[in-house]
Amino acid sequence: MNGTKMWGVYTFVAILIMGLVLPVFAQDDDKKIGIWQNDVSVGVNLLQSSYSQNWNGGEKGSVNWTANFDAKFEKQFNDLNNWRNTIKLAYGQSHKQDRDSGDMLYWEKPDKTDDIIDLESLFRWTPKGGWDPYVSVSFVSLFEDVSDDSDRTLSFNPKTLKESVGISRPWINTEERQLMSRLGIAFIQNSREFFLNPAPSSETTSESSTELAAEFITEYKSGILDGKVDWESKLSLTLPFIYSGTSTFEDDVDLVAEGLPDDLADYSTTMDVDWENTLTANITSVISVKLFLRWVYDKYDNTVAPSVDEDGNLLNASDVHQAIRKAGQFKQTMALGLTYKFM
Fold this sequence. Notes:
By secondary structure, this protein is mostly beta strands.
């Protein structure tokens, strides 16, 4: 077992030990029996500018927009059963003007700036002991995959379905703050399309893969600055110990000949980290400023399953190269827009 895998195992052991100690500091749950707790928000952010053809100054017009939909539906049916469903959808584009050789303004093809499809259903058994067994099902995808270098796009690609089982602990559950952790085993199914030939060909094929992984998820929500700012944070650690594509990397592909790291098989079972933070400042009942921060460490994107022909040639070599990300990835967005909440 290499050092990276051992680090992942040690991390999960430390988390489990923490879980045995932290109940001492936990607060009592604030359960509302038999009532659906609904939290739904719809938002649109827009920034626009445009100029006439003879505008003196060289500026170029642009339109930037993002639409998002966030919802949570939760019900404590009785003292022993809790069901929570969450939906997170977002899509945004940036449209820009440019000048052609005749100094005439025209609109370029829009670039995608945001894209999220994230659905989850979580059922927990909630005895008074505080440790709650759970089962969950989640689905993650994108509205539009624009990762191809030739500007070809694929809809709802890739797709990841995950079923999990384990134990959870609501450390804090009050009107003002919620903090919950989950530790379990996840079975993950990935499906991804990729283009078979260079552009302009649009012929595609699909590859699927599976994973068995340990997962640890902590979610926190709180109002800060006297309730003027809402803070939501989610930390997800996933440690795959079985990946269906590992044997292909180990036995079927000449990685060095393909220009790939010779230990690529180990990348697919390295711990993945995904940490999201959202700060929302509510200026009025419908106007808000939202700051979104996300840090991801995913050494190999397991949704990209290796595809090999009879001669051992890697058919999706470019996709495999793009799936390797040895450094962490960071995303930051800030937007002022209209948000309406349904409670």
